[in-house]
Design a protein that fits this description.
With 173 residues, this protein is an alpha/beta fold. Helix content is 34%, strand content 18%. It has a single domain, classed as Collagenase (Catalytic Domain) (3-Layer(aba) Sandwich), CATH 3.40.390. The chain has helices at 13-27, 53-63, 116-135, 154-159, 166-172; strands at residues 2-7, 30-33, 44-45, 50-52, 68-73, 77-78, 87-89, 95-99. The longest helix is centred in the last third of the chain and has 20 residues, at 116-135.
Length: 173
């Protein structure tokens, strides 16, 4: 599998590196990093102060030519009636997006030896793996430790492992 990574807006290099590392470690795929694209102005909802997630998926689809593509952004995203999303993907499709906007909250009040940068990078890897998993046909998993488990809060993202559980792994193999 080949995945095109498309930064949208100002996306720092550590974010794209974490995304690429997550994809390679879980899916053993090739990943191509594209040049950054401008934020889709027509996707901004002034009333919400957020961007429509679907617009980022559409933008990445126009840029990338690989089997799968993922847009990365630091902007706050929403989807339909949800207050926010960490990411969005089309089930069994080729497009997805991950926002890091809400992934940068402190992990555990400083009780861990891991740095905030380490925790942030791990969250990015998990969310990228999760969204690409949806494009591979994986739905949300009931195993709360599986990366495909639905996680509407950062705390729930932190509980998950970065890898697929055995059942989800069998689906993508």
């Amino acid at each position: 599998m080949h995945v095109d990574i498309v930064p949208v807006g100002d996306v720092p290099a550590p974010i794209t590196r974490a995304a690429s590392a997550g994809l390679r470690s879980v899916y053993d795929c090739d990943a191509t990093l594209h040049d950054a694209r401008a934020l889709p102005a027509d996707a901004y909802d002034e009333g919400r102060g957020q961007y429509r997630a679907e617009a980022f998926i559409e933008l990445a689809g126009r840029v990338g030519a690989a089997e799968k593509n993922i847009a990365l952004t630091t902007q706050d995203l929403f989807y339909r009636r949800r207050n926010y999303v960490f990411g969005l993907a089309y089930l069994s499709g080729n497009g997805s997006v991950v926002s890091t906007y809400r992934l940068q909250t402190p992990a555990d009040g400083g009780r861990s030896e891991r740095t905030e940068d380490d925790v942030f990078a791990e969250r990015i890897r998990k969310e990228v793996v999760h969204e690409i998993g949806h494009t591979l046909g994986l739905e949300h998993c009931d195993d709360d430790r599986c990366v495909m488990n639905f996680s509407p809060t950062v705390r729930e993202v932190d509980v998950k492992r970065q890898h697929l559980c055995g059942d989800c792994q069998r689906v993508v193999d």
